[in-house]
Design goal:
The complex is a heterodimer of chains A (about 300) and B (about 325). By secondary structure, chain A is an all-alpha fold. Chain A has one domain (about 1-285): ABC transporter involved in vitamin B12 uptake, BtuC (Orthogonal Bundle). In chain A, about 75% of the residues lie in helices and about 5% in strands. In chain A, α1 runs antiparallel to α11. The longest helix of chain B is centred in the middle third of the chain and has 27 residues, at about 200-225. The chains are: A mainly alpha (about 300), B mainly alpha (about 325). The interface of A and B includes residues 95, 271 and 278 of A. Chain A: It is found in: Cell membrane.
Amino acid sequence: MLQDILQIIVSGASIGATYGLVGLGVVFLWLTISRINFANISSAMLGAYLFYSFYTQLNLGFFISFVLSIAVIALYGLGLRAFIYEPIRKRGGGRLEFVVATLMLCTFWLNLIIVTYGALPKPFPPVFGGSQDFISLGGIRIPTLYLNIYLVIGILMVFIYFLLNKTLIGKSFRAAAQNREAAALMGIDVKVTTSLSFILATCVVGIAGILLAPIYFVSLELGGGSIGVKGFASAVLGGLTNPYGTILGGISLGLLENFSTLYISSTYRDIISFSVLVAVLILKPSGIFNWKSKKI
Amino acid sequence: MKKLILIVGAILLIILFPLFTNNMYHLYLMNRALIHSILATGLVFLTGFAGQISLGQAGFYAIGAYTSAYFTVRLGLPISIGVIAGVVLSVVAGFLLSIPSFKLKAFFLSLVTIAFGQIVWMLVINLTPITGGPYGFFGIPFYSVGNNMLSYGQVFWLFGGILLVSVFIMYRIKHSHFGRAMLAMNDDDVATETCGISTKKLKIAAFGFSAGLAGLAGALYAHLAGFLSPEPFTFFESSNFVAMAVVGGLRHMSGGVVGGIGLTLLPEFLRFGGWENYYLMVTSLIVIVIIIFVPMGLGPILENLFRKVFKLKRSNTKTL
């Protein structure tokens, strides 16, 4: 029994951590421009499909495919800023216009993928370990896939920590996030930090897409399923401004999901997690992992 | 006077349209367009006038559709009672959904509405005994008077009448004490509250009204299509409805009608124009372009166009 529970904790936390990564995309944009990109999850789908085409169709090898697909996703982030965010802002469109534009962008990417790759899910190459590979640890089986997810997320968190806290560009990003006008007066180029936030947002979600692909296959599920909403939910649990809180929020969401599958029913799993999201929003809109909302 | 001409023009358009075409598909499509217009009108009311975003409108649509289907098929009641039950139930759901809006704004509220839409969708898929689940709900009766089935043209008149009535009600609300308070709340709800106006009541009313229209649209759709599957009730449909309201123009009476008809017909035009595979892609791109370049929506532009045309004619008759 205890083993089962530990097993569920391991798998729930790993999938939840990727939800957290999807949520990070929301957090980075919210910090700098206080907008929500509802096409956030499309970056995950694009990441998975790009990696799939580079790796299996062009045979470029793991490292090159990974870097190339993330580079393309970064360019997409810049394009998002140049072609969607800036024109709407210039013509006086408010938040709602941005919301609808990004919602439509989500439909656009889904249909583009359907047209180019077809609607059938594609098997993901076993680059993170096959479905049968696992490590036994005191009776608990940890699939290598989950170990790799932890590894990538660990590296990413360290990278983000150093980028935001130890480099000049990270400091200017944090300054602009706290107060745009004051930062601009201090000589910080707000355009650069806005671009950085778009790139960070899309890249992190793209990586999450590549990590989620072995679980959900390279499928439209990644771009239109409930994963996107779970990403928003983990961002909200973390208070929308705290990257580390967001990862924690994602992990707790994953745990909640797996435990409700075990103890209640798998059909009502998503209903339970969405109800928790609504309850948190109503009872504590500033998030439950928001110990330090000012600092990131 | 100008308004009278516009209203008479709209009524004439609705009366004459079915006489022009005998193509069943075109008529069916126009009926869908009217249903979407009813729903988008409610959304214009909620978002444009009262300032509350809802991305879960497909949830109310589903509640209306499945309630009416359940009442008519499983309980054997007449269509009119089924439709009324659908509207009542979605209004109740709207009242419930307005509770989070007392505390939450903008993005947080839209998240709650997304969660609501998703929960309804999951219920539709998983409550197989009531909704038929993924297999669908079959055998929903079509509109009829006595023993005579109505034709698509007559249904078009019925829907057109309902749309006109709902736009008229909305017009009256907008120009009442209540509507002005709502517009004030849209601009600044704290200031409205300090003027002694209960924003809670306004929000409850706005959510209830727009949910009622969405439920009405859903019930009408259920009897028009004859069967229900979970597909028209996904999150993507909700976002489509919001797109209709925004493309039509959020702050204009005609916004819902223009957006509803436009965004229902545009994909079909593209589909028959030889774009079978790409029409949804192109539609979403066109919507993005419209939002970027005409953030006020197409409704006011068309209104101005009409006004100019009518003014020209009237001034001509005067000089003559």
